[in-house]
């Protein structure tokens, strides 16, 4: 089975009816890039930059601008001209780092990700400069986690402009057109997409957090793990609404949460109109195998029926049947 999949590395990711699909890799370190290329990735859809900040030796609490720049540059060079989407620091809750205090009773609802970065603008500017500098060496996109409010987007864009101005003053080269996008992973964001579409150039759905926040279940709490259901009708609604709204506006949209790498979900997401999937490199070829055997002419009407089905067992059965269509 692995050997058979290995043969798909160079096979175009195109459905039976001729629709091309983009397959991207989620990485944690630049050293993951060779595995992404091995899986035939068209690029990196999610570089989780917080891993450069986690589990560090005590004497070097934070990676500085040059150290971060070296990592981002290494990734973009390793990907040989394919786009690399770098997500800015997403710390707090399930991704703790040593140098910040974690005292909140509800860390998932606390000062995490972009909220933390906007509260620590010097740290954020350091990361933004490092990413901008790396953009002189290959195509980079900037992805912002956990946005919900218009003013957060605006403050983030203003800080990016400030980082650019600082680099221009030093005569440092960077991509002036660096695309900036948002993770859609808070239900409020999925329900207020025009705010994002107006201000940003692409979107990426983080199903891991979108499920956590929609169903009000802590994604790392084993006692509620049985309630973590990607097929809950509310999740299917938010996914299809987000994908359709972005497509209608002509804004590129991907899914980079675990759902994108789960072959049981591939056809459902295709049927909703998703054409960009980002996943762990080990899952790329299995998902491609699903895609090249999928016929949208059959899957799209079946998906529309699933979206009108609210009963959990009927939904689960219908999603399972999608796989044998
Ligand atoms: C997500 O929330 O779905 C996601 C892709 O990001 P993370 O798992 O790193 O929070
Ligand atoms: Mg997330």
TrEMBL record:
<dbReference type="GO" id="GO:0009401">
    <property type="term" value="P:phosphoenolpyruvate-dependent sugar phosphotransferase system"/>
</dbReference>
<dbReference type="GO" id="GO:0016301">
    <property type="term" value="F:kinase activity"/>
</dbReference>
<feature type="binding site">
    <location>
        <position position="209"/>
    </location>
    <ligand>
        <name>Mg(2+)</name>
    </ligand>
</feature>
<feature type="active site" description="Proton donor">
    <location>
        <position position="256"/>
    </location>
</feature>
<feature type="binding site">
    <location>
        <position position="87"/>
    </location>
    <ligand>
        <name>phosphoenolpyruvate</name>
    </ligand>
</feature>
<keyword id="KW-0460">Magnesium</keyword>
<comment type="function">
    <text>General (non sugar-specific) component of the phosphoenolpyruvate-dependent sugar phosphotransferase system (sugar PTS). This major carbohydrate active-transport system catalyzes the phosphorylation of incoming sugar substrates concomitantly with their translocation across the cell membrane. Enzyme I transfers the phosphoryl group from phosphoenolpyruvate (PEP) to the phosphoryl carrier protein (HPr).</text>
</comment>
<protein>
    <recommendedName>
        <fullName>Phosphoenolpyruvate-protein phosphotransferase</fullName>
        <ecNumber>2.7.3.9</ecNumber>
    </recommendedName>
</protein>
<comment type="similarity">
    <text>Belongs to the PEP-utilizing enzyme family.</text>
</comment>
<keyword id="KW-0479">Metal-binding</keyword>
<feature type="binding site">
    <location>
        <position position="48"/>
    </location>
    <ligand>
        <name>phosphoenolpyruvate</name>
    </ligand>
</feature>
<keyword id="KW-0762">Sugar transport</keyword>
<feature type="domain" description="PEP-utilising enzyme C-terminal">
    <location>
        <begin position="3"/>
        <end position="294"/>
    </location>
</feature>
<keyword id="KW-0813">Transport</keyword>
<keyword id="KW-0963">Cytoplasm</keyword>
<keyword id="KW-0598">Phosphotransferase system</keyword>
<dbReference type="GO" id="GO:0046872">
    <property type="term" value="F:metal ion binding"/>
</dbReference>
<feature type="binding site">
    <location>
        <begin position="208"/>
        <end position="209"/>
    </location>
    <ligand>
        <name>phosphoenolpyruvate</name>
    </ligand>
</feature>
<feature type="binding site">
    <location>
        <position position="219"/>
    </location>
    <ligand>
        <name>phosphoenolpyruvate</name>
    </ligand>
</feature>
<feature type="binding site">
    <location>
        <position position="185"/>
    </location>
    <ligand>
        <name>Mg(2+)</name>
    </ligand>
</feature>
<keyword id="KW-0808">Transferase</keyword>
<keyword id="KW-0418">Kinase</keyword>
<dbReference type="GO" id="GO:0008965">
    <property type="term" value="F:phosphoenolpyruvate-protein phosphotransferase activity"/>
</dbReference>
<dbReference type="GO" id="GO:0005737">
    <property type="term" value="C:cytoplasm"/>
</dbReference>
């Amino acid at each position: 089975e692995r050997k058979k999949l290995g043969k798909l590395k160079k096979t175009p990711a195109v459905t039976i009816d001729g629709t091309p699909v983009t397959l991207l890799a989620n990485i944690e370190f630049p050293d993951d890039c060779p595995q992404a290329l091995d899986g035939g990735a068209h690029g990196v859809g999610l570089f989780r930059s917080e891993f450069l900040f986690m589990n560090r030796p005590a004497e070097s609490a934070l990676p500085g601008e040059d150290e971060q720049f070296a990592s981002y540059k290494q990734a973009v060079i390793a990907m040989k001209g394919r786009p690399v989407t770098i997500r800015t620091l997403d710390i707090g809750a399930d991704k703790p780092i040593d140098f910040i205090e974690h005292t909140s009773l509800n860390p998932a609802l606390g000062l995490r990700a972009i909220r933390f970065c906007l509260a620590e603008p010097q740290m954020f500017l350091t990361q933004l400069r490092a990413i901008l500098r790396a953009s002189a060496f290959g195509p980079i996109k900037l992805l912002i986690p956990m946005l919900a409010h218009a003013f957060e987007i605006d403050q983030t864009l203003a800080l990016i402009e400030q980082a650019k101005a600082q680099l221009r003053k030093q005569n440092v080269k960077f991509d002036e057109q660096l695309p900036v996008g948002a993770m859609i992973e808070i239900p409020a964001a999925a329900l207020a997409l025009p705010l994002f579409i107006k201000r940003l150039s692409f979107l990426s759905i983080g199903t891991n957090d979108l499920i956590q926040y929609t169903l009000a279940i802590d994604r790392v709490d084993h006692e509620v793990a049985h309630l973590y259901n990607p097929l809950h009708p509310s999740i299917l609604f938010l996914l299809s609404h987000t994908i359709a709204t972005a497509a209608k506006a002509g804004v590129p949209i991907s899914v980079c949460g675990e759902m994108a790498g789960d072959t049981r979900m591939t056809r459902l997401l295709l049927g909703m109109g998703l054409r960009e999937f980002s996943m762990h490199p080990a899952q790329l070829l299995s998902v491609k195998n699903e895609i090249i055997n999928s016929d949208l002419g059959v899957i799209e009407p079946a998906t529309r029926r699933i979206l009108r089905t609210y009963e959990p067992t009927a939904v689960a059965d219908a999603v399972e049947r999608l796989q044998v269509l």
